[in-house]
Design goal:
The protein is mainly alpha-helical. It has one domain. The chain is 62% helix and 0% strand. It contains six helices and no strands. Helix 2 crosses helix 6. The protein is globular. The termini are far apart.
């Protein structure tokens, strides 16, 4: 666990921070199990932050009711994630 926390805090490239995600990139992320190790691996691979990958998994399984309650029903990124998640045959 200590090694994971150390790796998570290490400064690595987040040069893609703020850039839009393609459908293919999101499909790759959503094809992995949302484990700490996979999230760290995906963050490094896509040059994004750990939190951004973790958030993709969270939005994929957030219920419609929760999204509406948070006022995010018009968020295009959330819609993109949920569309791909459903296309891949997963159910939230």
């Amino acid at each position: 666990m200590l090694i994971f926390e150390y790796e998570k805090k290490q400064a690595y490239s987040t040069e893609n921070k703020g850039r839009p995600w393609t459908d293919e990139e999101l499909r790759v992320v959503l094809s992995f199990a949302p484990t700490k190790e996979n999230i760290l691996k995906l963050a490094k691979g896509f040059k994004r932050s750990y939190g951004s990958i973790e958030q993709i998994f969270r939005w994929a399984v957030t219920t419609d009711e929760e999204i509406i309650n948070k006022g995010r029903e018009d968020d295009s990124f959330i819609k993109q994630i949920r569309r791909l998640y459903k296309e891949m045959g997963w159910k939230a």
